[in-house]
Write a structure and sequence with these properties.
By secondary structure, this protein is α+β, with helices and mostly antiparallel strands. The protein contains nine helices and nine strands. It has two domains: 76 residues, no CATH class; 176 residues, no CATH class. A seven-stranded mixed sheet has the order 3-4-5-6-9-8-7, with helices on both faces. Strands 1-2 form a two-stranded antiparallel sheet.
Length: 260
């Protein structure tokens, strides 16, 4: 059985080598097709006799040519953004929004806690809630983009969430807060949240005004109200400054806080 497995591994190595010899490595199209084929070969070898040694040798050989093998056996240029990292960051962003909504619900029930609190103190309460999960990776007044964010969650060296906190004082306060939030985004951080605080006699009407102000923003491209009823959260995609065809798009989750 061992000999058969060894011969099988040798046969796969021979196929791998002969395939590589037939690739024009100056042709980017051929290179990409070859890498996808190599990924398929690696997937077939998974768990076979001598697999760990085979993977180590292939990884070392690819590294010499500037490529890396990801944990899901994808072959990518060294340093390239990894799809599995993107999925992790998307989950972290969703978790940050869940925590913010939970903190919002608790703060709305605790009027004695939030009474007369200024914006910075309310922000600090949110940081405590976020860091119970993110363990110190959520910070306030952190430089990013073109200013200091109210809340930044950075995992490793990646920004997974940027938040702006503001008291509602009219539609202009909404557009100003959104413009400010967009200034903090960059190519490595486009998932954001706009946290508006309301101490109004008719908060529902003011929240509706806020949604209208965001939708009317000249750079707002889409609106999602699917989480409005259950979570009191609204989603938007807002284009950054620059050419409409190439400017980065930011996800903006609007979460209202009706506080004492």
């Amino acid at each position: 059985m061992e000999a058969a497995q060894t011969r099988s591994g040798g046969a796969r190595k021979q196929v791998f080598s002969s395939f590589a010899e037939g690739v024009d490595w100056t042709d980017e199209g051929q290179v990409q097709r070859a890498l996808r084929a190599f990924e398929g070969m690696l997937d077939e070898c998974t768990g076979s006799y001598g697999w760990d040694g085979t993977l180590a040798k292939v990884t070392a050989a690819l590294a010499r040519d500037g490529y890396q093998v990801s944990p899901t056996l994808q072959i990518l240029p060294v340093g390239e953004w990894r799809p599995e990292v993107a999925r992790h960051d998307a989950r972290a962003y969703a978790e940050s929004l869940r925590l913010l909504r939970g903190a919002r619900n608790a703060m709305e029930r605790l009027g004695l806690l939030t009474s007369d609190m200024p914006e910075e103190r309310l922000r600090d309460v949110l940081l405590v809630a976020l860091n119970a999960y993110f363990e110190g990776q959520s910070t306030g007044e952190t430089l990013n983009g073109k200013g200091k964010t109210d809340i930044l969650i950075r995992v490793g060296d990646r920004n997974v969430s940027i938040s702006e906190c503001k008291f509602y004082t009219g539609p202009k306060s909404v557009t100003d807060a959104l413009d400010q939030l967009l200034r903090y985004t960059d190519n490595g951080g486009r998932r954001t949240s706009l946290l508006m605080f309301y101490r109004e006699k008719d908060p529902d009407a003011r929240i509706a005004d806020t949604i209208s102000a965001i939708r009317s923003h000249p750079q707002c491209e889409s609106f999602d109200s699917s989480r409005a009823d259950e979570d009191r959260q609204w989603g938007f995609v807002v284009r950054g400054s620059g050419d409409p065809g190439s400017a980065p798009r930011a996800e903006v989750a609007f979460i209202p806080f009706v506080i004492a």
